[in-house]
Write a structure and sequence with these properties.
Blueprint lengths: L7 H4 L6 H11 L15 H45 L5 H12 L5 H37 L2 H20 L3 H29 L3 H33 L3 H27 L4 H30 L4 H5 L3 H13 L1 H7 L1 H18 L6 H33 L5 H37 L2 H4 L1
Helix pairs in contact: 3-7, 3-8, 3-9, 4-5, 5-7, 6-7, 6-9, 10-14, 10-15, 10-16, 12-15, 13-14, 14-15, 15-16
Keywords: Membrane, Transmembrane, Transmembrane helix, Transport
InterPro entries: MFS, MFS_dom, MFS_trans_sf, MFS_Vesicular_Transporter
Membrane topology: Multi-pass membrane protein
């Protein structure tokens, strides 16, 4: 029993009514509370017990909330530092790096001519981050209103890591420009969602003002570290590898930390969410791989007319239309999980059958199977996500799981063509090694 000198009724005013005390006792102790004691006169000790218990619950909840808010502040503060380190570390490195690369490739030009030419390119490079962030800030702000702050914050840390890795591994101007642009996306995610988390977790205006001021202090620290560290490490190593590799290592640890925290939060929804989203990703990846490769494969094997290339994916679309419009009731009666497993198998069989097609009419059959399978997955798995949330969480989690599902679709369409391109390149390299030079010509 919680010892305190204040009166019970001052500690918990809501329990001034004896009936409310009875109801609270029945909720807290359903196994030992006897409903036959409904008319038993209430004693002061009954009110005392319930009041003390709820005082402990309130204190525990307040402590947990303070720890959570402090953890969010630390995460956002570190993210602000890393974001601005990556922002400023390039300033003493990239102009000199690009100048040296240009001087080696064009020995005849004078130093003044090279600097004059590179001045505009450096300006475009540095401006690309701000221009990209100018556009994405509004998109990220809209996203946070639909799915919350934690997922965009985690995605932002991943983009910062990607940007740093591109800086580390690339030397061409176009890749450096891409790294700077990717940094703009990551910075937008981290800043918008990070400040949003701070504002939502600190309700008191005075406390929120102090915390936001401290958070902005991370920007100043990151700028100071970036300028000095970039110049010193670049001079020490005579290469951009060391400073960017160090930043990449720190960002890797930070990103893994964010993914771990987010996975713990996401696991509170339901573990089956990952299975459902994974099935959507696998099925969609088949189309993501086929879209850039199938037309070229048809041109190489079947020599079609131009209009025939345009209708290559028509059977795919018809299958998807049938799967989404006519199988919703079937999946509800038979079972959405069974339909999902069958649909994955159907997509797999269709994908395996495509290389064995010898004509365009035969190609429509596996294409139809793939489209039908993806349609069955979408019509069965998306309602299953809603059912999982209904059983395990509140309606506020709908936006989170459907955002994850859409991310899986985007990931499939974004990564699958890259995987396909790498696979085709490797196959061509093996073929060039095996074939004589005369055949290659």
């Amino acid at each position: 029993m919680l010892a305190t000198s204040t009166p019970v009724m001052d500690r918990v005013r809501v329990f001034s009514n004896p009936k409310e005390v009875k109801l609270s006792k029945r909720m807290l102790f359903p196994d030992i509370w006897n409903t036959s004691d409904e008319d038993t006169p209430m004693e002061d000790s009954d009110t005392d017990i319930v009041a003390d218990i709820f005082c402990c619950v309130n204190i525990s909840h307040s402590t947990t909330f303070q720890m959570k808010s402090r953890s969010i502040f630390i995460r956002v503060y570190i993210a602000m530092i890393l974001d601005n380190v990556l922002l400023t570390v390039v300033v003493p490195i990239l102009p000199n790096f690009i100048y040296n690369a240009e001087r080696e490739s064009q020995n005849l030009e004078s130093r003044h001519q090279i600097i004059s030419k590179e001045n505009g390119r450096i300006g475009y490079l540095f401006a690309s981050k701000a221009l990209v962030q100018l556009v994405t800030n509004f998109l990220i702000g809209k996203m946070t209103t639909m799915i919350g702050y934690r997922l965009p914050f985690t995605i932002g840390s991943i983009f910062l890591l990607f940007s740093s890795l591109i800086y580390t591994l690339s030397s061409r101007y176009i890749w450096l420009l891409l790294a700077r642009s990717v940094h703009g996306i990551g910075s937008s995610c981290v800043c918008v969602s990070g400040i949003g988390m701070i504002a939502s977790n600190y309700g008191d205006d005075e406390e929120r003002s102090k915390i936001m001021s401290h958070t902005m202090g991370g920007v100043a620290i990151g700028i100071l570290i970036g300028y000095s560290m970039g110049g010193f490490l670049y001079y020490l190593a005579q290469s951009k590898l060391l400073p960017f590799a160090l930043i990449s290592f720190v960002l890797l640890i930070f990103t893994m930390w964010q993914l771990l925290l987010y996975s713990r939060e996401a696991s509170s929804l339901h573990p089956n969410v990952l299975i459902v989203v994974g099935s959507i990703w696998i099925a969609t990846s088949s189309v993501g791989i086929l879209e850039p490769t199938l037309p070229l494969w048809i041109m190489d094997r079947m020599h079609p007319r131009k209009w025939q290339l345009g209708i290559t994916f028509v059977s795919d679309s018809i299958g998807y239309l049938i799967g989404t419009h006519f199988f919703a009731g079937v999946s509800y009666r038979v079972g959405r999980k069974k339909i999902g497993v069958g649909a994955i198998c159907l997509v797999g069989i269709g994908s395996i059958s495509i290389p064995h097609a010898t004509s365009l009419p035969l190609l429509t059959i596996p294409q139809f199977m793939i489209g039908l399978g993806i349609g069955l997955i979408d019509s069965s798995m998306l309602p299953l996500l809603a059912k999982i949330i209904d059983q395990t969480s509140s309606g506020e989690a709908y936006g989170v799981v459907y955002a994850i599902a859409e991310t899986a679709v985007s990931f499939a369409y974004g990564i699958s063509p890259l995987i396909e391109n790498g696979n085709v390149t490797c196959q061509n390299m093996r073929r060039m090694k095996c074939n004589p030079v005369s055949e290659i010509r």
